[in-house]
Amino acid sequence: MKKLLEINHCRKSFGGLEVLKDLNISVEESQVLSIIGPSGSGKSTLLRCATLLETMDGGDLIYDGLYAARDQGGKAVYASPQELHRVRNMFGLVFQNFNLFPHYSVLKNIMEAPMLVQKRGRKEVEEEARSLLEQMGLADRADAYPYQLSGGQQQRVSIARALAMKPKILFFDEPTSALDPELTWEILRVIRMLAEEKMTMVIVTHEMAFAREVSDWVVFMNDGIIVEQGDPREVIDHPTQERTIQFLRKMSGD
Ligand SMILES: Nc1ncnc2c1ncn2[C@@H]1O[C@H](COP(=O)(O)OP(=O)(O)OP(=O)(O)O)[C@@H](O)[C@H]1O
Ligand SMILES: [Mg+2]
What we know:
This protein has 254 residues and is an alpha/beta fold. It has helices at 43-50, 81-88, 106-116, 122-135, 151-163, 181-196, 208-214, 232-235, 242-251; strands at 3-14, 17-28, 32-36, 58-63, 66-72, 75-78, 91-94, 169-173, 200-204, 217-222, 225-230.
């Protein structure tokens, strides 16, 4: 299987606080990787480093063979702006809080980046945007504004917006944690559908049952390191490390 993402020896500190400590992750094409772990363990920081929203202090970041950053003597050296532009076109990111443009319609939210960043033609982009909305069960909401939608609908629009860029890999940072429990399932259903379509995804989530069901690989992080990783049925049902056992016990509420 082709490796789409590789992060080697990733290190990141904020001031004196070391948040990521020599982390390695690799994601193959069509794989769904879930990242679980307690608050403050560095999950979002890892995702932000992977998506170039933060710079790593040290380590390699490689997308489909293209180096976004290369470790040189323990320091991450980033590629040129042109190469980073190519890298940015390879992934999409869905945030916890949707981050839609409030003054744009749903359709315009989805069409903006493919037209402006990827310079694709309006007609093709609009056709695709409408078909993505249809796929998300929102065909009739193209002209609505974000404030007119429920949180679950807004999150589906932001997934459509990410997909409109045709990413090779899609990142989610706790995509359901800003949603009421009854809206959570809408998003989980969409992610499950994408997994069935073999979309490559990296998902930070607190939904253990979902991570167990949808992912091919689970990474448990604590304190900036990977404590345990493997098949979700192994890691979630039969954790071997004391820290993982404690965390899962807490998540299941006993
Ligand atoms: N920009 C920043 N400046 C300073 N410290 C930061 C910054 N971003 C994150 N941190 C710190 O890094 C640590 C890891 O934070 P991070 O957001 O990655 O954790 P997380 O695993 O995503 O937690 P949660 O489950 O609560 O979202 C925390 O101690 C946090 O306070
Ligand atoms: Mg986080």
